[in-house]
């Protein structure tokens, strides 16, 4: 069978033909990769081959070169780079030739192939003449298709490759792209491809943006493109402006004043929604930048420093022009809009919310007249827009400014939960939810609480979206009021929600009986139940106990029908329900503590049955393990009888290296069991340590799980104290090797990873040191003091010092000193860097300072 026929069969409507062709192609790619790639390339370049088959060839070539997973991408890259130069050259020439195909679509397929090869070769210093070749193509005035496909290729390359690899060619790339985007270019297709390429190249032309003349020209071309006759080019130009504002905010003052204010305000009113959405996004981006800059300025002021960059207050300056447009856009709702359908009304509400965050109190005055003038309007569009405007400005302004307005509006909003229009009720429920979340003090228990809860509970019988927002509002109410009433600090306090617990829980449980989860309303109800469990005060504990019994009955029922489930949708629904039920059990267990003991056998029996039913890949396993961890923490030593039947499932999860989340939860459970049983867990320590050390050696296991493992060594050591001796030498060796990893300041991901890694190692050291402290085996630590302090010194020497690392470092110095109070490690503790660190005057959070002072006192005693 020839290549064309084989590729055609991969697109066959007949499933067997399709599967057979796909398998043959996969076999060819494995058994004879060079021939496979040449075969695909010959189909792509052949102008006589039908277009859909050339597309299939181009897609297969691209998929043989690029993958989302890093490990597979490395495999594909290595395989390509190992090809004979003649083979690679032939495939590259075919792809470059296809860029100029009379068929524009074929050129597009080829552009993806060229960029996929470039993404492999350019970082390796190969195909260095590619950019020069592409720039030559862009300057070919005779072949429009070639120019379009080449600009698409440049855009794809800019998107796929790290900026530093292309930065040396930035000038040439930018020249070609801007040439194609300028208003004198006769072809709208070329302009569009150039604008998209410019969007993808914006990050690595930073040096060009530093030069005023070049920056002016780039901005001129982009601003002119927003006025292009082609709407697609206009959309692309506004997308560029959004990205430019995000990347080069500090360079935008002149352009805002001269062009961008006007262009974007007019753009937001554009009849084509695609243009309007990007113009709105521009102002959302401005606000996001200015919110961030305001926060940075506050942080700098707290530390007596000057911020690197200051806000230009573009949003505040443009407020009189922007607000009326955004408010007008709020009235453009679509009656039958889908929840996930993004339109100008939703975008306008998001922008208004961000604007409130950026300009704070200044947003109130221009918005309130609109609310007052429309909240009682006959047209539902205006009523809904008024409520949406009110809900959108509740975060940003000073609560003291908003409080009188909310007090005045609350009775009306509660009444609007009975509005005749579904969308008005939906937005009202959302707004009430925001008030409960951000301005809980405005809700007076004796005035508002009863009608508010009544309206929200009534809303639980409405349409799915309204139910979701009512659940969210009820959840916020419980969380925020719960934070105000802490029975542990003052048992005499009465939570005003207490008398509503029974009816609210009953209503939420009724919602969760639904077989549907449209708009996530059932999940939202379970989340609200969890919030009421967490906020429960002693007077409502009977309600919580009754709730968990109901939940356990539901789990039992679901387990009884497990074998009757056939379809994928039913299976997913079953998994989701069991996950929600497990989550409630977890939180009830944490709330009741040892009070859960009478239900312990029943809960653990259900969890074991659930794990058996769920299968290895189910997300339910994570939820079941979290519930087990909560029960373990609540029962402590009384959890002992459940460990033996549970261990086989724990070890199976620990060996699921490909499932990082499940493995992390399983590792955490070892820590839970060790803490719960204390020195009684020594009988399990050997098998725990064996499986954890095996996991550290796995090439498949996510590196972040390995950090959790290191930290868990500390949990085991702390629990069993001197009984950790058989594992001490090996553990300390592992920790020392892991601690030797140094961050590369240019690799932000690695910097973050090393910080987390060091935190895990310090936690492990803390557990080991504390476990041996004040025992007869404490001297086992002496030989390891230098390596422990070496890591502490490197952590404290970092320019960007994380508070968590500082606190752990000071704590560890103090713990070591406390272990040897009679001068056994005096020489180490009197090193200059330790003396200097413990006397530092640097600003730090109170808890960290307290830890440092304690460490200083321990060191003083240990060095007398």
From TrEMBL:
Keyword 4Fe-4S assigned: no
Protein name: Importin-95
GO biological process: protein import into nucleus
Entry keyword Cytoplasm: yes
Main subcellular localisation: cytoplasm
Molecular-function GO terms, alphabetical: small GTPase binding
PANTHER family tied to this protein: IMPORTIN BETA
Pfam family, one: TPR_IMB1
Family indicated by similarity: Belongs to the importin beta family. Importin beta-1 subfamily.
Localization of this protein: Cytoplasm; Nucleus envelope
Highest rank taxon of the organism: Eukaryota
Comp. bias intervals (Polar residues): 7-20
The Importin N-terminal domain, residue ranges: 21-101
Key words, A-Z: Cytoplasm, Nucleus, Protein transport, Repeat, Transport
Classification via SMART domains: ARM (SM00185), IBN_N (SM00913)
GO cellular component: cytoplasm; nuclear envelope
Organism: Ephemerocybe angulata
Region (Disordered): 1-23
């Amino acid at each position: 069978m020839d290549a064309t026929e084989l590729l055609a069969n991969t697109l066959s409507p007949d499933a067997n033909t399709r599967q057979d062709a796909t398998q043959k192609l996969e076999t060819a790619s494995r058994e004879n990769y060079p021939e496979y790639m040449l075969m695909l390339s010959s189909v792509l370049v052949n102008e006589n081959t039908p277009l859909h088959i050339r597309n299939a060839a181009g897609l297969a070539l691209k998929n043989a070169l690029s993958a989302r997973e890093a490990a597979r991408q490395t495999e594909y890259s290595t395989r390509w780079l190992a090809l004979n130069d003649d083979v690679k050259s032939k495939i590259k020439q075919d792809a470059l030739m296809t860029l100029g195909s009379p068929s524009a679509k074929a050129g597009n397929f080829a552009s993806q192939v060229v960029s996929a090869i470039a993404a492999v070769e350019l970082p390796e210093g190969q195909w260095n003449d590619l950019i020069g070749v592409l720039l030559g193509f862009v300057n070919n005035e005779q072949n429009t298709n070639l120019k379009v496909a080449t600009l698409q290729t440049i855009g794809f390359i800019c998107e796929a490759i790290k900026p530093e690899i292309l930065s040396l060619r930035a000038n040439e790339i930018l020249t070609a792209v801007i040439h194609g985007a300028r208003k004198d270019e006769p072809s709208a297709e070329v302009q569009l491809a150039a604008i998209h390429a410019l969007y993808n190249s914006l990050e690595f032309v930073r040096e060009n943006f530093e030069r005023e003349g070049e920056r002016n020209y780039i901005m001129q071309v982009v601003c002119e493109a927003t006025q292009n006759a082609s709407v697609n080019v206009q959309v692309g130009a506004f997308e560029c402006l959004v990205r430019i504002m995000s990347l080069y905010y500090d360079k935008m003052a002149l352009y805002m004043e001269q062009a961008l204010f006007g262009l974007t305000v007019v753009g937001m009113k554009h009849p084509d929604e695609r243009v309007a959405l990007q113009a709105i996004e521009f102002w959302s981006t401005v606000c996001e930048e200015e919110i961030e800059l305001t926060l940075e300025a506050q942080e700098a002021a707290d530390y007596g420093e000057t911020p690197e960059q200051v806000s230009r207050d573009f949003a505040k300056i443009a407020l009189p022009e922007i607000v009326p447009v955004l408010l007008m856009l709020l009235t453009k709702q679509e009656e039958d809009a889908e929840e996930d359908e993004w339109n100008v009304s939703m975008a306008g509400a998001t922008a208004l919310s961000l604007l409130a965050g950026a300009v704070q109190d200044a947003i109130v005055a221009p918005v309130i007249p609109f609310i007052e003038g429309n909240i009682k309007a006959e047209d539902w569009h205006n009523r809904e827009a008024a409520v949406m405007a009110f809900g959108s400005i509740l975060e940003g302004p000073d609560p003291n400014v908003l409080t009188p307005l909310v007090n005045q509006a609350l009775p009306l909003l509660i009444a609007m939960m009975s509005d005749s229009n579904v969308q008005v009720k939906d937005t009202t429920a959302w707004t009430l939810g925001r008030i409960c979340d951000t301005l809980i003090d405005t809700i007076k228990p004796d005035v508002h609480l009863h009608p508010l809860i009544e309206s929200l509970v009534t809303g639980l019988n409405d349409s799915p979206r309204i139910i979701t927002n009512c659940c969210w509002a009820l959840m916020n109410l419980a969380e925020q009021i719960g934070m105000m009433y802490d029975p542990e600090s003052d048992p005499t306090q009465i939570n005003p929600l207490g008398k509503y617990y029974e009816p609210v829980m009953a209503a939420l449980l009724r919602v969760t009986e639904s077989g549907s989860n449209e708009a996530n309303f059932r999940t939202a109800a379970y989340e609200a139940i969890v919030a009421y469990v967490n906020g429960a005060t002693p007077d409502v504990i009977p309600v919580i106990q009754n709730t968990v019994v109901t939940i356990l009955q539901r789990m039992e029922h679901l387990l009884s029908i497990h074998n009757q489930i056939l379809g994928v949708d039913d299976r997913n629904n079953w998994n989701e329900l069991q996950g929600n039920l497990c989550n409630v059990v977890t939180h009830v267990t944490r709330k009741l503590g040892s009070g859960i003991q009478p239900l312990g056998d029943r809960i653990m029996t259900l969890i074991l049955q659930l794990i058996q039913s769920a299968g290895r890949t189910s997300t339910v396993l994570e939820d079941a393990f979290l519930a087990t961890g909560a029960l373990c923490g609540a029962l402590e030593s009384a959890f002992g009888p459940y460990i033996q039947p549970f261990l086989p499932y724990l070890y199976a999860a620990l060996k699921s290296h490909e499932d990082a989340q499940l493995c992390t939860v399983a590792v955490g459970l070892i820590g839970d069991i060790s803490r719960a049983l204390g020195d009684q867990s020594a009988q399990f320590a050997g098998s725990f340590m064996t499986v954890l050390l095996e996991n550290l050696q796995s090439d498949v296991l996510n590196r972040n799980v390995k950090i959790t493992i290191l930290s868990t060594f500390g949990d085991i050591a702390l629990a069993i104290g001197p009984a950790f001796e058989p594992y001490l030498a090996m553990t300390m060796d592992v920790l020392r090797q892991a601690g030797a990893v140094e961050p590369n300041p240019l690799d932000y991901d690695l910097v973050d990873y090393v910080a987390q890694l060091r935190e895990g190692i310090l936690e492990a050291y803390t557990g080991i040191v504390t476990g041996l402290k004040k025992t007869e085996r404490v001297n086992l630590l002496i030989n390891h003091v230098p390596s422990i302090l070496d890591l502490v010194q490197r952590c404290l020497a970092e320019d960007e010092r994380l508070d968590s690392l500082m606190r752990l470092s000071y704590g560890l110095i103090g713990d070591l000193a406390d272990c040897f109070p009679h001068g056994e490690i005096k020489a180490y503790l009197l090193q200059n860097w330790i003396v200097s660190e413990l006397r530092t005057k640097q600003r730090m959070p109170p808890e960290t300072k307290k830890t440092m002072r304690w460490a200083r006192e321990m060191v003083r005693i240990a060095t007398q």
